[in-house]
Design brief:
Layout (H helix, E strand, L loop, with lengths): L4 E7 L3 H10 L7 E6 L4 H14 L2 E4 L6 H12 L6 E5 L3 E2 L4 H12 L3 E8 L4 E4 L2 E4 L4 E4 L8 E2 L9 E3 H7 L11 H11 L4 E11 L12 H19 L2 H4 L1 H12 L8 H20 L7
Parallel strand pairs: 1-2, 1-4, 2-3, 6-12
Antiparallel strand pairs: 4-11, 5-12, 6-7, 6-11, 8-9, 10-12
Length: about 300
């Protein structure tokens, strides 16, 4: 088994959090680490270069914000890992234990899995945020298990916050889909992986901390969140599960649940609700333009 581990971190105005992540990482077993800066801001880029120089890692700057999936894809391409290597995707607002990378790599080997995630906790209380998960095609949503299993366990959804994937699996899948821009990239990748018979697991003995929402602003979920969450959800459900994936009672109720969530926000409620509605319309228009997507 190759011991090569390549790490990709996509940054978007989160250089302060990124420094804390780099401080927590043991870089000794890591073959290379690439920071992809999507911020399109020279001051932020200067901070990223400074952090990269301090820790002896690589960084590249995008000409504009390409989105999470495209950022990861560019980072992996720049690192050029072999099929036998391991690719670890980390959110910049995570903090890891020094032995996490090797433990995840070993778990992939021992379980025969293609994709793995550590247990992810959040808040000062270290509440479980992701203890494994599944994709619920009936409701059209990803589900995080709040009660983590005791042993390595198969699942059908692995969050992109700390996903480790074999190099061969990455090449077979072709990386993340780039037209989604933000949200649902990990869900879509996991749907494809599941369809190809790939094995995905949660490794509960390995835990990392995640500042959930740490890269967001202080006004709650953004209008972009609501737009892309609705748009991408509809697009993926329609493409993979056909008309039935969109018009089932549970799927419609889930769309409504997301749709009314802006009214629980502290600010910009109308703007966020409008963005949510526009996301639904845009997703349906995209599907209508891809007649083969709905059967």
């Amino acid at each position: 088994m190759s011991r090569e581990i390549y790490v990709v971190v996509v940054n978007y105005y989160s250089s302060g959090l990124l420094t804390e992540l780099l401080e927590s990482l043991d870089l000794t077993p890591i073959t290379a680490l690439m920071i992809v800066d999507n911020s399109d801001d020279m001051c932020e880029w200067s901070r990223i270069r400074s952090a990269a120089s301090r820790f002896g890692v690589d960084c590249i700057q995008m000409s504009s914000n390409l989105g999470f999936g495209a950022g990861v894809n560019r980072g992996v391409k720049a690192l050029n890992p072999s099929d036998e290597s391991h690719i670890w995707i980390l959110n910049p607002d995570t903090v890891v234990r020094p032995d996490t990378a090797v433990a995840l790599m070993t778990a992939l080997s021992d379980s025969g899995a293609d994709i793995a995630s550590p247990l992810i906790v959040t808040d000062p209380s270290e509440r479980v945020w992701y203890g494994g998960g599944n994709f619920d095609s009936r409701r059209g949503r990803t589900c995080h298990w709040s009660d983590a299993p005791d042993v390595i366990t198969e699942c059908t959804f692995v969050t992109g916050a700390a996903m480790m994937i074999r190099g061969l699996a990455w090449r077979r899948l072709g990386g993340f889909r780039e037209d989604l821009f933000m949200y649902w990239e990990d869900a879509e990748l996991c749907i494809r992986a599941h369809q190809r018979g790939m094995k995905m697991v949660i490794v509960p003995s390995v835990a990392i901390w995640h500042a959930v929402g740490g890269t967001a602003n202080d006004s709650g979920k953004s209008a972009l969140y609501y737009f892309y969450m609705q748009r991408n959800r509809i697009l993926i459900l329609g493409e993979y599960f056909g008309l039935g994936g969109l018009v089932g009672v549970s799927a419609i109720l889930e769309a409504l649940r997301i749709g009314v969530r802006p009214f629980r926000e502290e600010s910009q409620r109308v703007r966020k609700f409008t963005a949510s509605a526009r996301g639904i319309v845009h997703g349906l228009r995209l599907l209508a333009g891809r007649s083969s997507g709905i059967v």
